[in-house]
Write a structure and sequence with these properties.
about 150 residues, alpha+beta, globular, 7 strands, seven-stranded mixed β-sheet
Length: about 150
């Protein structure tokens, strides 16, 4: 069973290593996670297993709109995929949104199976943007509205 909680500074290297393993050359740089830890500690969640090993993380940040947040990244280790960990991370994020937040956005590769998870969690397509992150890196922009 995994424990989901805010990240500790001592776990930032493990987050970065998971990021690299999942996203490869398109991963965030290591210093970004330190900045995320400093700027958005309440929205930087990790999933830790019984052996105290990092199994996943989620990083969310408030945008310029005070009623809006963005899920910047969700990653789950290869060996724990399909066990509902990504779902639990997102549900925890949504359950702990500041009261002022009315909508949450994220982007997803149209071929990523996580797209269907996001739909099940209440996210809806609001836009398709070709080359969102560069040539051939299309994304669907999805929105969750707080009810």
């Amino acid at each position: 069973m995994q424990c989901i909680r805010p990240v500790l500074k001592s776990e930032l290297l493990a987050v970065y290593q998971l990021e690299q393993a999942i996203f490869g050359e398109h991963s965030y740089p290591d210093f970004f996670f330190r900045q995320g830890f400093d700027c958005w500690p309440e929205q930087f969640l990790v999933a830790i297993d019984d052996r105290h090993q990092l199994q996943g993380y989620l990083l969310c940040a408030q945008s310029g709109d005070p009623q809006c947040m963005w899920i910047l990244s969700v990653a789950v280790s290869e060996n724990t995929r399909g066990q509902g960990l990504g779902k639990r991370l997102i549900e925890r994020c949504l359950a702990e949104l500041p009261l002022s937040i009315q909508q949450v956005y994220l982007t997803v590769d149209p071929n990523n199976p996580a797209y269907f998870l996001y739909q099940k969690l209440g996210f809806r397509d609001v836009n398709f943007e070709a080359d969102y992150f560069g040539i051939g890196m299309d994304r669907i922009v999805m929105q969750y509205r707080r009810s």
